C-alpha cells in the first residue's frame, strides 16, 4: 500500500480575535487567494509589501435595503458613497484589479492598522 500526502490551503480571516475561515480547500496558496479575491463575501487587500490580508463576511458592509439583506457594498473610486470613511484605506482598494467589498465602519481602523503593519 502506498500513501500520498497532499497539501491543501485553508484561508483564515486576518481580523484579530476572529476565527472565521473560508470553507474551501485549495491546492495552492495562489489559488486560495485568487478564490477569496473573486468572492463577493470576502475582502482581500494587499499590504504595501504585497502580502495578502483576508477578511471574512463578519467585517463587511452590507447594503441597507437590499432584498435579502446580504449584498456587500463594493468600493468604487468614482463614487464617494461607496468608499471607506477612512481615506487612507482607498489606496489599498485602488491597487486591486477586481473591486473588493468595503469593511463595516467599526472595522475600518483595525483593517487599516493590519494593512500598515508589514510584519
Ligand atoms: Zn473574520
Automatic annotation (TrEMBL):
Its recorded name reads Uncharacterized protein
Q: Which organism is it from?
A: Bifidobacterium adolescentis
| Organism placement in taxonomy | Bacteria, Bacillati, Actinomycetota, Actinomycetes, Bifidobacteriales
Amino acid at each position: 500500500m502506498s500513501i500520498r500526502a497532499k497539501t491543501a490551503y485553508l484561508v483564515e480571516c486576518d481580523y484579530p480575535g476572529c476565527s472565521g475561515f473560508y470553507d474551501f480547500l485549495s491546492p495552492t496558496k495562489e489559488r486560495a487567494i485568487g478564490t477569496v479575491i473573486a468572492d463577493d463575501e470576502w475582502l482581500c487587500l494587499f499590504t504595501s509589501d504585497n502580502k495578502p490580508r483576508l477578511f471574512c463576511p463578519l467585517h463587511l458592509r452590507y447594503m441597507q435595503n437590499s432584498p435579502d439583506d446580504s449584498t456587500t457594498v463594493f468600493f468604487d473610486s468614482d463614487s464617494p458613497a461607496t468608499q471607506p470613511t477612512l481615506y487612507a484605506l482607498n489606496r489599498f482598494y485602488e491597487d486591486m484589479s477586481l473591486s473588493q467589498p468595503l469593511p463595516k465602519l467599526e472595522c475600518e481602523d483595525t483593517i487599516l492598522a493590519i494593512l500598515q503593519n508589514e510584519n
